Amino acid sequence: MANFKVSRVETTPFEGQKPGTSGLRKKVKVFIQPHYLQNFVQATFNALGADRVEGATLVVSGDGRYYSKDAIQIITKMAAANGVRRVWIGQNGLLSTPAVSAVVRERVGADGSKATGAFILTASHNPGGPHEDFGIKYNMENGGPAPEGITNKIYENTTTIKEYLIAEGLPDVDISTTGVSSFEGPKGKFDVDVFDSTSDYLKLLKYECFSYVQKQMSFCFQSIFDFPAIQKLLSSPKFSFCYDALHGVAGVHAKRIFVEELGANESSLVNCVPKEDFGGGHPDPNLTYAKELVARMGLSKTHSEPNPPEFGAAADGDGDRNMVLGKRFFVTPSDSVAIIAANAVQAIPYFSGGLKGVARSMPTSAALDIVAKHLKLKFFEVPTGWKFFGNLMDAGMCSICGEESFGTGSDHIREKDGIWAVLAWLSILAYKNKDNLGEGNLVSVEDIVCQHWAIYGRHYYTRYDYENVNADGAKDLMAHLVKLQSSIDEVNKLIKGIRSDVSNVVHADEFEYKDPVDGSVSKHQGIRYLFEDGSRLVFRLSGTGSEGATIRLYIEQYEKDSSKIGRDSQEALAPLVEVALKLSKMQEYTSRSAPTVIT
Ligand code: G16
Predict the structure, then answer these.
(1) DSSP 448-473
(2) Residues annotated as region Disordered (predicted)?
């Protein structure tokens, strides 16, 4: 057993180590500066306090992007020096963000240990490679992102840090081979356990119900999805499937789950080998960046695909996001969560007892609100950031939640879950087609969405992203929009001067959220203009970029009239888009004549 000593290394604070919407994300060249990562990790240990760190079991893994392997070794050595008892690492350092959450909540070590927290190494949907982004965030013992109370404390610590602790004499761990390595430090034993990346996550997702009766008591163990039903769908010659991991970590889980467990053809998987630079692409599952899938599904404007699959999906770098597509058909993430919620009880065994409640982030369309109303479910609107759903789930108030930013998930873990969303859609498709796989026409993704709109109405929805614009210009634009809110009459006059066919604004504010569980208040969570006919314009600055600023403009319009629900969404929203761009003086403040991404 190798021994190590603890070294105290002097350091000075770096500016700007404030975690954003989901952890600290910066260019690799920033992270590789001497002491940069170390300061943040030590600040996290300091913020957590010795009682949460000494003797702890920590998961350390991520999406495998450039610099992850070095970071894993550094964090492991710092964990050892800070008195952590065990570090758990997914094989090759690969665990999707939802898999980390599952491991924290579910995995039991050979010695009966349970994880108490996790460092997740990812910059999510941001590109990777030596000139691109790296990121790190801390998740708590419930498997969810650290709440603002902790991230603020981490940040405070980064501004005063003077030293960090690191193990000297601890060799680099071989993370390519599973197994436990043990070491001895000043505070006792330290173990590094490298384990299979998918087993625990798969165990959670797979529905296995068996009851047995013992001493007049019956037990039933079940998990989430009915795998045999999905298997039947995937093996039907009528059905075809395509999954694009954009070279992110979801590819590792996808091969095990879709191919080995569910019997999908290996050729259904695209870009499923994780790469440190995501193959040079932007691992963001949307219509702009998931080009290959978009073309395969018959949605490319430049390429015509004669026979697209029935169902397609993509993931982001760390596998927590999802984009769902039907044959030549795009499902907005806001519709996706509403449709999953509307069908969950019938189609997904985990929810067969009913939903505790549903939630969405503020900029997400109100499609979910209507489902909640129809089904008489508790409903919550939270600020952008998955961490806000965690308290509701821990308090048993919410089962399903989703965001317009391609995040969907449930209370099985405390992160959004890209593969869960795909399995949820496959379950709905399997349920709707349970009698059609032999004779009869397949109920398609498009059919399911159109049937949903016919019942609940349609929320036309689009998001314009202005990425990496001048930060001062972006701030000025937001200040201008806040100032305008002081006179609704003035706003309405301006709007009528732009488009007379757009309804009146009835309320305008900056979104503020009071957490119903712990009473904490989050202010300045996006600028809202709410219209008489239910339309909304929302403006926010992204909290996940690593350079400049990204302005997000969210545009939504509700249509109840079933004769008007089949329009092209960009066409239907054109008047509101025009109002939004002119009202905000977008071009003036950003010097951009068009957004970088439209979804
Ligand atoms: C994170 C958060 C999400 C949020 C998204 C976009 O996702 O967990 O809740 O919606 O960022 O945030 P923003 O609009 O501030 O860029 P991820 O997938 O990047 O971890």
Answers:
(1) HHHHHHHHH-EEEEEEEEEEEE-HHH
(2) 1-20
